[in-house]
Structures are given as structure tokens and as C-alpha cells.
Design goal:
Length: 199
């Protein structure tokens, strides 16, 4: 794992046969500061979700011609005088073995009927199914029925996915307000011209 702003890589995990459901993004590499912090820039305990912040000599200076974005993403390090951290926007949590698990993006948090919903958390549950290769959840809405969660899944090659069964699976693992109202099976997820997921 390694964003451009802290290139080339900041964490490392050797993939094994045991990594069938979730592949961790790994443990920090040498000379990299890797912090999981809450909204007040305080470290969170093992197993608790927070935002990933990165520090070290490999950090970029900022975004060329974008002082606003630089100020938003590169913040003063509360644990190291005079140093900075890069706020990745990625939600992660520490695993007991000292590795990080990626949970989704912080900018994919939505509000539905007064409840904060982490779309990445729902996607992670859908991806635990052995017949699902890819999953995306989005907030949809129309004027008549209000807002609702829609899940889109791509089956593993050769698998047949039943939308009803996927919803039932989600209902076992998630609170009711986080269960997608509809699940749609697609042959592939739409992407932009840059190859990024088109939500």
C-alpha cells in the first residue's frame, strides 16, 4: 500500500493462502510513521476504525498549484514537533498482529435517515461472500421514495449470485439501516476513462 503523496510504499503484506476473505494492507515499512487516528487526531485502539495518517521523509511537499488541497491533506504532526502528516482519507484499523486492514474511504461516509453510514463497511461485508468478486454500495434516491442504499456486485467467474440471498447475508452482519434496499448483479463495475470506479 502506498499513495502517491507518500511514495513508493508505506506498508507491506505477504499474501498467503490464509488471505481468502480480506487481505490486509500490511505493516509499516522502515522509516515510515503510520498512525490510525480519530477525528481529534488521537490514536485509536487495536480493532477500532480510524483514518490513516502517514509521516516520514518520503512525504510529498504538497500539491503543485493547490495550496488549499495541500493545507487540507498535509497537517502538523501532533506527535513530532516540526514534522507533518499526510491525511490519506482511508479508513483502516489495526489488527492484533500489527498489520492494517483497509475498510474504505472516509469520503464515502453518507447520512441516511439521520444515521451515519460507512459505505466501505457494507462493501466489506458483501465481499466476504465467496461468490462475490467485487462490490460497491451507493446512496440513491428519487423524489417519491426518498434515499436508499443500493448494492452492486460482480460474481466470481462462473458463480451465480442471487440478489435476495446477498441481502439476507448483509442483514445478518449489519444493522438494519445499513442493509442495501436493493442489490443488483452486474457483469462488471463501470469505470471512468482513467480506470477508476465510476460511482
Amino acid at each position: 500500500y502506498g499513495p502517491t503523496e507518500a511514495s513508493v510504499d508505506v506498508t507491506f503484506h505477504e499474501v498467503t493462502e490464509a488471505d481468502r476473505v480480506v487481505v490486509p494492507i500490511g505493516a509499516p515499512v522502515w522509516n515510515t510513521q503510520t498512525l490510525v487516528l480519530d477525528g481529534r487526531l488521537r490514536p485509536v485502539p487495536v480493532g477500532v476504525a480510524g483514518e490513516l495518517y502517514l509521516g516520514g521523509v518520503q512525504l510529498a511537499r504538497g500539491y503543485r498549484g493547490r495550496p488549499d488541497l495541500t493545507a487540507d491533506r498535509f497537517v502538523a504532526n501532533p506527535f513530532g514537533a516540526g514534522s507533518r502528516l499526510y491525511r490519506t482519507g482511508d479508513r483502516v484499523r489495526w489488527l492484533p498482529g500489527g498489520e492494517l486492514e483497509y475498510l474504505g474511504r472516509t469520503d464515502f461516509q453518507v447520512k441516511l435517515r439521520g444515521q451515519r453510514v460507512e459505505l466501505g463497511e457494507i462493501e466489506a461485508v458483501l465481499l466476504r461472500r465467496e461468490d462475490v468478486a467485487q462490490a460497491v454500495v451507493v446512496l440513491r434516491g428519487d423524489g417519491s421514495s426518498g434515499e436508499y442504499l443500493a448494492g452492486y456486485v460482480v460474481p466470481v467467474s462462473g458463480a451465480v449470485v442471487d440478489e435476495r440471498v446477498v441481502r439476507e447475508w448483509a442483514a445478518v452482519a449489519l444493522p438494519g439501516f445499513m442493509v442495501p434496499s436493493v442489490v443488483v448483479v452486474l457483469a462488471e463495475l463501470p469505470v471512468t476513462v482513467n480506470g477508476k470506479l465510476d460511482r
